[in-house]
Amino acid sequence: MNKKAGLVLSALLLLLVFLAGVYFGVKWTKSGKVDRVQQARDDMRSRLAAFVSFVQQGKGEGEMVSKARELCEELGGRWGIWQGESEDSSKARYSCNLPTTDGGKPCTDSSECESFCSASGDAELGARTAGKCYPYLYAKCARIVENGVFAKEVCVKEGKFNKALKVGGSDGN
Hints:
By secondary structure, this protein is an alpha+beta fold. Helix content is 33%, strand content 15%. It has a three-stranded antiparallel beta sheet, with no helix packed on it. It has a two-stranded antiparallel ribbon with strand order 1-2. It is elongated and about 50 Å long. The N and C termini lie far apart (60 Å). Mean pLDDT is 68; it is low at 6-30 and 158-173.
């Protein structure tokens, strides 16, 4: 292999590593170095999500559920039923509602937030308003700001899973 081909191959390899990092959520600092703290947090969140998913599928009981709850709380999460079933339902699945890294940041649209842009409690539907990024991934009710307008309020009804509600809510539920 000649020198030019080696340089092209090296450049392609570096591009592939960078794209893989972007794809898998690795955070880079302005100096081009990996943010190790954020990377470790993202890794822990991914592992917890996989573990909780395992527990939710009915494959874990007793001690495993306790461990999942403990891990959730260690990461600042809230353990509970977040996706529409009541506690009395045989279909109820507990899960971890992890905190976002941008909770409380001012926003005008959910695209600016990990979860969603939450309108304040006194905002009127259809009115122009600024919001704040919701501090958790899920909520039972969400007051959503889109393009600087309080656009909609969405709530999960008991017994119905609403996948769109990975958007949170303004009261922390």
